[in-house]
Design the sequence.
């Protein structure tokens, strides 16, 4: 009885107001309001010549029926028989639609019901189908490469104006098995034509039509606007016929969804009140704007709204709480965009919120797929097709002139099967997203919700947002590079939420000419065997992983079905970096790019390669502070299962059929990751004041530049690391990774590289040889603006007398000569240095501008530039380069000047012996004390890093502690896993802050206004990851105004790199780190196309302190230059180890006995230990002298290691104020013991004040020179 009487009342029926090819105008002097579902559109007319292949019969459900067990009454209307009304429509020539109201415009949208049920007297009401779902009215087909030839289904997408579909069969609601009537409801031009909507007042959600939770019935006054288009790919796959399209123009005088109490939702029941601030989002109720072919333009006073919160901070904030600064908000009311081949631009005067973005060719479908044939067998349904309708021209531009901006609230909406659902374990957007908050800030992630869980922890979404690669294919009229720009006048509050530009292969994305497909074929043990063209390396659609039919799944159709979502190495010349700019404010919780580690759980023998999310260089600039960027040390983020990838487990059971495909079990992510593809790629991270806890990883070649106007505070929570190439990897490659340049305390305006370039590149500034440099203001010893030819370098090194043409052959012969001599020495058991002349010339040549430009821009490069040394002026070309490119070159020139100055200081008889003038001139040029107007410039700021650990007790959901708990035994994480994760033991994670380049790349550090603190004394003992390390071919170059302190940490080069450190006013201290710590070089693991693994050898090194190591004989030695003109060089307990030559220049060098040198040593004092207690014993004195002489002779390797004066430090602690009562008193009248100076004694004093010529003759040349300085 209930079924007969009440079923019609439970149907989601809709009405239609439409024309065909004629225009449709709806004009009101007041409001325009929909109070029931209506389809208001122009339908156009059916295209001519639509063949049967594009009008397939409707597909059966998994139970073999068209509409389920309760749909027999409606089946005749869709089964293709005489009563059937269904057909695939490809309309064209549709009319235009105009909706104009002087007042407000309100629609009627029905959303997906929440998880609660309203029980009537007859039972629970079933869920509705969301009325904005594009899958209601845009259907698709195509088997792609899964089935080709005569059996293949050609790709197509068409309009369903209205038809029945099967209801869900897995619920307990009343009439859940009854069919649904679905089609388009809203306002649109479905057959083509322009759509214009104008509202003089507000639009969208102005009053509530539901409870705050939307759990029972989701309904709103939002708008559903669409410009449709259809397409058919010819049977031969070469032609594409498109219909429809037009422009969508929306103009709203007020705001879209302007009422905060109406646009905010909660997961709980109850109504919104001023005291209850809900932050939930139901995007399908906010409005949906679709344009599949054309342009979408919107102008409004505001779109959605952002309520600022002063009661809680951004969860990524680590600074003191500021009650006057809103770092958190509640954003809502943003529409969902579904563009096809369309550009989107939204301009607002106030706030701008975007709900999400969908791809019409990959949205969930409400039908049963399509029928298909394969291998001679016919299947009546469950054939699922997906492809992207985004093109290189698809772009989204957002501009808020006077408000704040939220680029997406999708992460706050966890509904499945929505237009903007996370299809790839990530929310996808087209390749171009440009957003500007011209007067305000960005709020996204948790900063746009402020949501917390039951334990008062912030609710963070691990479903990040990713921009798709810009698709590449012959079908596109043009191709281009993607672009990501978030530009704020004030601040960016990201809440730790990731927004990333993908670097995946753009040639392997599903499109109409290469559709993705999954179809159910025969029934097997676990369900149905799937026929699909999904790549084993890609992401699997939910219909592919389903045991049975796909209609009952949430239907996530990934963009990365044919390629993994990892960096591919594909790069478009001239691509712009991803930009995150906060002009006057802060960037808090920035997250972009990820290293995704995949595994299948404890004890599993299956391994899966890492994925690297990122698509080119980035530019991150904050006018004030950059806070908590990336994933903190010791932490990782879960990845949604749809983003793990899939595999087929080893066959088991009866073995008749392959096992069921399943997702990879575990995946975790760390960021920020920057992926470079070209040697000239430069990523810039800059803050006008402080950088606190910034984690950045860079893959590939190029340079990562990190600059703080004041402090760069890494503490024990951050690291900067170059991980080397991740695409087309060569196992033995140790030299192609990116370099890292770090600067702290440079001031808001930075360093004066322009003045430095003018001075050191202009030949007119060449100093006159033979004259003192101090007498030639503005002149320089070396000018680097020219070219260093190979012949010139060989002439300076070996006296080569030939021309440039013969230089390569001569170098080859000289290299063979050196190699032969080295092999003979090694055979004789002697030590021999390995020299690589081509590498040495390359390093020297890169200091000269012409060489550098030729190597960087002479061939293929990321900027798309070309430099020809024969026909172009090098300095003019250089001046036109972006500033970060110029700095990449000039930094090396600066350090070359510092190194030369330190060596000239110790050069006996040299033109600047005992003088640091050359280096100080370079320092003064790069770090001027006054600007052009004469205003004083201040440099203040330190680089700080150290180590600690997070301890986790053996209890469920234990929070980390910084100290071990009493009575708990802890294992380090790797040992804990090796022990099988014992339940009764705690575990700790090392937090080793550091700066590393793992597979090549230099490390440059500048602190012109403070100290460089690499580690601290005491506290937690650092692990092997702490400090500054180049673990491939790379150098370390450091300049600090104050001291360079290592504490218990290290500065290492391990594959032939040099180390240069200059402390202008402080000390260089190698610290007291453990000599037993083992530092392993990262192992390179490379998988080939059949799964075989190639591993690079590991080369463990030990210790701390300062060292240039060459653990493999073929690795060239590394030199060390340490210069502290006003301070002390202290080898400390950790020591200094040098595989090449060492040059030390300082006021004092202490603990020199802890310096180990394999090559030439300059500047190390000779130690002469004297036993004062044996002064009365002549034989003891002689013995000590002999011992000291032997020790000195052993340390002196060459004549250049000249004896410097020994330094004795005498500290008088005090003379006291009272007489020592215990001392015997002298008798009255007693004579004092005679005291006299013995000129022949051990200690001699040479004069006072001015010395005579005779006294001066007793001093060494160095001592005389020092007295005259």
Sequence:
């Amino acid at each position: 009885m209930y079924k007969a009487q009440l079923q019609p009342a439970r149907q989601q029926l809709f009405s239609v107001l439409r024309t065909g090819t004629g225009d449709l105008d709806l004009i009101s002097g007041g409001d325009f309001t929909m109070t029931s579902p209506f389809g208001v559109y122009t339908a156009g007319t059916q295209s001519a010549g639509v063949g049967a292949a594009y009008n397939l019969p409707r597909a059966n459900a998994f139970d073999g029926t068209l509409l389920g067990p309760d749909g027999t009454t409606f089946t005749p209307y869709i089964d293709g028989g005489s009563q059937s009304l269904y057909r695939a429509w490809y309309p064209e020539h549709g009319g235009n639609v105009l909706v104009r109201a002087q007042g407000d415009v309100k629609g009627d949208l029905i959303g997906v019901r929440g998880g609660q049920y309203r029980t009537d007297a007859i039972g629970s009401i079933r869920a509705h189908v969301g009325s904005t779902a594009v899958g209601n009215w845009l259907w698709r087909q195509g088997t792609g490469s899964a089935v080709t030839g005569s059996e293949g289904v050609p790709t197509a997408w068409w309009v369903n104006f209205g038809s029945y579909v099967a209801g869900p069969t897995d619920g307990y609601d009343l009439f859940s098995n009854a069919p649904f009537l679905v089609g388009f409801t809203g306002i649109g031009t479905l057959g083509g034509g322009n759509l214009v909507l104008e509202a003089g007042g507000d639009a969208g959600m102005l009053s509530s039509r539901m409870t705050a939770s939307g759990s029972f019935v989701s309904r709103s006054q939002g708008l559903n606007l669409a410009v449709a288009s259809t397409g058919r790919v010819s049977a031969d796959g070469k032609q594409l016929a498109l219909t429809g399209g037009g422009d969508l123009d929306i103009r709203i005088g007020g705001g879209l969804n302007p009422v905060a109490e109406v646009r905010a939702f909660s997961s709980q029941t109850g109504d919104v009140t001023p005291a209850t601030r809900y932050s939930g989002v139901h995007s399908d109720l906010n409005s949906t704007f679709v344009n599949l072919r054309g342009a979408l333009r919107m102008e409004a006073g505001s779109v959605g709204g952002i309520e600022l919160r002063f009661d809680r901070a951004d969860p990524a904030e680590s600074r003191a709480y500021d009650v006057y600064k809103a770092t958190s908000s509640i954003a809502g009311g943003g529409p969902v965009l579904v563009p096809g081949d369309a550009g989107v631009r939204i301009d607002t005067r106030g706030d701008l919120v975007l709900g999400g973005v969908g791809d019409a060719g990959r949205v969930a479908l409400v039908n049963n797929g399509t029928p298909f044939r394969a291998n001679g067998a016919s299947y009546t349904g469950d054939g699922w097709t997906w492809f992207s309708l985004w093109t290189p021209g698809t772009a989204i531009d957002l501009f808020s002139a006077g408000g704040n901006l939220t680029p997406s609230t999708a992460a706050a909406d966890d509904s499945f099967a929505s237009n903007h659902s996370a299809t790839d374990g990530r929310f996808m957007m087209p390749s171009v997203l440009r957003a500007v908050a011209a007067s305000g800030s960005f709020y996204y992630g948790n900063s746009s919700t402020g949501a917390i869980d039951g334990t008062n922890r912030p609710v963070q979404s691990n479903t990040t947002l990713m921009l798709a690669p810009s698709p590449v294919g012959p079908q596109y009229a043009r191709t281009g590079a993607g672009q990501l720009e978030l530009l704020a006048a004030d601040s960016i509050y990201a809440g730790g939420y990731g927004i990333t530009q993908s670097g995946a292969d753009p040639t392997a994305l599903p499109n109409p000419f290469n559709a993705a497909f999954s179809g159910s074929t025969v029934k097997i043990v676990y369900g149905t065997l799937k026929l699909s063209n999904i790549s084993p390396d890609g992401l699997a659609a939910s219909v592919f992983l389903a045991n049975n039919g796909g209609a009952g799944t949430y239907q996530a159709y990934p963009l990365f079905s044919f390629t993994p979502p990892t960096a591919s190495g594909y790069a478009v010349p001239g691509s712009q970096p991803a930009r995150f700019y906060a002009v006057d404010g802060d960037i808090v919780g920035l997250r972009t790019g990820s290293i995704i580690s995949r595994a299948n759980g404890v004890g599993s023998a299956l391994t899966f390669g890492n994925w690297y999310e990122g698509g080119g260089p980035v530019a991150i600039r904050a006018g004030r502070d950059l806070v908590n960027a990336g994933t903190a040390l010791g932490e990782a983020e879960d990845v949604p299962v749809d983003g793990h990838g899939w595999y087929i487990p080893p066959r088991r059971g009866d073995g008749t059929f392959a096992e069921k495909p399943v997702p990879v079990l575990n995946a975790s992510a760390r960021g920020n990751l920057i992926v470079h593809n070209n040697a000239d790629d430069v990523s810039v991270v800059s803050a006008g004041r402080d950088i606190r806890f910034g984690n950045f990883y860079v893959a590939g070649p190029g340079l990562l530049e990190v600059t703080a106007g004041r402090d760069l505070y890494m503490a024990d929570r951050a690291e900067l690391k170059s991980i080397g190439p991740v695409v087309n990897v060569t196992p033995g490659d140790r030299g192609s990774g990116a370099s890292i340049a770090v600067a702290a305390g440079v001031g808001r305006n930075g360093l004066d590289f322009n003045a430095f370039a003018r001075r050191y590149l202009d030949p007119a500034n060449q100093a006159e040889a033979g004259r003192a440099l101090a007498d030639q203001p503005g002149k320089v010893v070396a000018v680097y603006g020219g070219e260093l030819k190979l012949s010139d370098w060989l002439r300076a090194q070996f006296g080569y007398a030939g021309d440039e043409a013969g230089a390569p052959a001569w170098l080859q012969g000289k290299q063979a000569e050196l190699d032969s001599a080295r092999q003979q020495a090694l055979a004789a058991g002697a030590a021999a240095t390995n020299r690589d002349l081509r590498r040495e010339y390359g390093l020297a040549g890169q200091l000269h501008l012409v060489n550098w430009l030729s190597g960087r821009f002479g061939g293929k490069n990321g900027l798309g530039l070309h430099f020809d040394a024969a026909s172009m002026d090098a300095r003019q070309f250089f001046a036109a380069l972006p500033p970060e490119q110029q700095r990449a070159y000039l930094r090396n020139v600066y350090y070359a000047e510092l190194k030369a100055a330190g060596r000239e200081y110790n050069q006996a008889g040299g033109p600047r012996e005992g003088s640091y003038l050359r280096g100080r001139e370079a320092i003064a040029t790069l770090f001027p004390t006054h600007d052009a107007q004469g205003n004083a410039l201040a440099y203040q700021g330190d680089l700080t890093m150290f180590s600690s650990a997070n301890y986790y007790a053996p209890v469920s959901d234990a929070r980390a502690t910084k100290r071990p708990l009493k009575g708990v035994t802890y294992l380090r994480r790797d040992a804990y896993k090796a022990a099988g994760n014992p339940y009764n033991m705690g575990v700790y994670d090392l937090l080793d802050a550091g700066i590393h380049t793992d597979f090549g790349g230099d490390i440059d550090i500048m602190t012109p206004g403070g100290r460089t603190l690499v580690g601290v004394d005491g506290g937690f003992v650092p692990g092997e990851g702490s400090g500054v390390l180049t673990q491939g071919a790379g150098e370390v170059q450091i300049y600090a105004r104050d001291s360079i302190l290592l504490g218990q940490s290290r500065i290492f080069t391990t594959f032939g790199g040099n180390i240069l450190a200059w402390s202008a006013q402080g000390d260089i201290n190698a610290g007291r780190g453990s000599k037993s710590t083992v530092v392993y070089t990262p192992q390179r693991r490379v998988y080939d196309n059949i799964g075989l693994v190639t591993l690079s050898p590991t080369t463990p090194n030990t210790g701390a302190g300062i060292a240039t190591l060459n653990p493999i004989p073929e690795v060239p030695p590394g030199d060390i230059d340490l210069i502290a003109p006003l301070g002390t060089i202290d080898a400390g307990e950790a020591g200094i180890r040098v595989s090449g030559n060492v040059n030390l220049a300082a006021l004092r060098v202490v603990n020199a006995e802890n310096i180990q040198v394999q090559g030439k040593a300059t500047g190390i004092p000779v130690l002469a230990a004297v036993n004062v207690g044996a002064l009365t014993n002549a034989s003891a004195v002689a013995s000590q002298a002999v011992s000291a002489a032997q020790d000195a002779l052993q340390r002196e390797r060459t004549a250049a290691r000249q004896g410097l004066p020994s330094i004795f430090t005498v500290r008088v602690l005090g003379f006291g104020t009272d007489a020592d009562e215990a001392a015997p008193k002298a008798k009255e009248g007693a004579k004092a013991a005679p005291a006299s100076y013995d000129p022949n004694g051990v200690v001699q004093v040479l004069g006072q004040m001015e010395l005579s010529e005779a006294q001066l003759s007793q001093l060494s040349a160095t001592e005389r020179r020092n007295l005259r300085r």
